[in-house]
Amino acid sequence: MIPIIQNSLKYTDKTAVIDQGGSYSYSDLYRSAVNTAKAIKSLSENDSPVLYMIPSGFDYLKVQWGIWLCGRIAVPVHIAHPKQEIDYLIEDTGADLLIYDEQAVEHLVDFEQHNIRKISINELESVRPIMDLKLDEINIHNDALMIYTSGTTGRPKGVVIGHQQLDAQIRSLTKAWNWSSDDRILNVLPMHHIHGMVNISCCALYNGAVLEMHRKFEPDIVRFKMSSGELTLFMAVPTIYHKLIEHFETLGQNEKDNWQQGMKKMRLMVSGSAALPVSVLEKWNEISGHILLERYGMTEIGMALSNPLEGERRPGTVGQALPFVSVKVMDELGNQINEPNTAGELFVKGETIFKRYWNKTEETRMSFEDEWFKTGDVVEFSADGYFKILGRKSSDIIKSGAYKISALEIENAMLAFPGISECAVVGLPDDQWGEIIAAVVVGDISESEIRKRLKDCLAHYKHPRRYIFVDTLPRNAMGKIKKAEIVNTFFGA
């Protein structure tokens, strides 16, 4: 049996999920997942990955679990992804089935050029399973998830995570953050990323907690839920905490007091997926009474570092290695750095590390040195072992609002537009978003036209927010674009 599902069966009639449609027990979730699995197997005996495009909620979870119970790989797709990005996922995965919510995904169009069946949640529920259909026993060594993440080569890569690695990630955070069946958490994060999917949803369900799922972040909803005094946990990205602070400042004194009283009953608040400005940490502490617990992870490794649940949570750091994880820092010559406060690349190994990049054997091989995954993040550590993230080795990876975004993917999309002869995309430091995307363009095209065209080919969070139009791009003697110089151009603009 799949560990997360097996563990959840301990809690039977206890409330598992609350969403806009109502409240569902652990038994409800398991029963619905089994029915979903049987419907999927009746539609397709293929073993290819299954794409699902469903907003956060009970339906998302029953489909994800249903895919797992079929022994297939679950591939979450952002409900706002445009057709071109979905085209790429279909082609890259070889999926023959796409399950979607017809009410939430209004823009979904036909994919006649692909050998894929598109079926809505409602249609799936009406499928009559093959008589006496039985589900196979799932091996813990089977693949479980494929989450797409941007890389320096441009197009996103499918990160394959097995049930064994997923279980290790959940057990690591359960131990480090003391999850229990007494917990109740609100999830307002996207469910096509590891933060909302694993750190919140999977950990909650594994431990018999109550998982409240909201389709998107809305400050007043978060305030209302926290003010109730029912939540014990909250996890978000720095951008959300920044917006909650802004929302707090707009309230009357009674609303502020109620919110603050509710937060006093919570045991933990976590921030991750992007650097947390110390100013936001300090202001949130002043408002909530909580020192945000900062941690570090990525799709390929799960969570690797965390400030302690009990003990000093040091501002500007992401703490120490989590359970089942080993870390080391390497210099450019391949030597391990043992001297504190010396910058180098973070290497990680352990039970939580992903299995492979989908259909990318060479890229998988190049990402490891022996059993150590090379994160591409530059770090330094203090004498007592607290790690600080300094940035990416590659200037072509932008971290904005918790998303890891490939500058090359955006550049390639823009260079396909008539009127653009050259362009360069960079990340600019920003207190709210961590980084914002900015583009320098050479060509005869307006900013409004670029924005209009990008809507058709890239998810909204990949769109540049600032533009500068120039005659030429700065390049070195080898013809490589000087991105550091381009960043400085924006600050002088």
Overview of this structure, please?
The chain is globular and about 65 Å long. The chain has 493 residues and is an alpha/beta fold. It contains 15 helices and 26 strands. The strands form six sheets. A nine-stranded mixed beta sheet has the order 2-1-10-9-11-12-13-14-15. Strands 16, 17, 19, 20 and 21 form a five-stranded antiparallel beta sheet that branches. Among the domains are: 136 residues, 3-Layer(aba) Sandwich (Rossmann fold), CATH 3.40.50.980; 96 residues, GMP Synthetase, Chain A, domain 3, CATH 3.30.300. 46% of the residues are buried. Helix content is 32%, strand content 27%.
- Ends: how far apart? 58 Å
Largest sheet: 9 strands, mixed
**The first-level CATH class name of the domain at 3-138:** Alpha Beta
- Classify the oligomer: single chain
Strand order of the largest sheet: 2-1-10-9-11-12-13-14-15
Any low-confidence stretches, pLDDT <50, length ≥5? Answer: none
- What is the SS-derived class? alpha/beta
Number of strands: 26
Radius of gyration: 23 Å
Q: What is the CATH topology descriptor of the domain at 3-138?
A: Rossmann fold
How is this fold's topology laid out?
Blueprint: H1 3-8, E1 15-19, E2 22-25, H2 26-43, E3 50-53, H3 58-69, E4 74-76, H4 83-93, E5 97-100, E6 117-120, H5 121-125, E7 143-149, E8 157-162, H6 163-177, E9 184-187, H7 194-206, E10 210-213, H8 219-227, E11 233-236, H9 238-249, H10 253-264, E12 268-271, H11 278-288, E13 293-298, E14 302-306, E15 320-321, E16 325-330, E17 344-350, E18 356-357, H12 361-366, E19 368-369, E20 372-381, E21 387-392, E22 397-400, E23 403-406, H13 407-415, E24 420-430, E25 434-443, H14 447-454, E26 466-469, H15 483-492
Parallel strand pairs: 1-10, 3-4, 3-5, 5-6, 9-10, 9-11, 11-12, 12-13, 25-26
Antiparallel strand pairs: 1-2, 7-8, 8-18, 13-14, 14-15, 16-17, 17-20, 19-20, 20-21, 22-23, 24-25
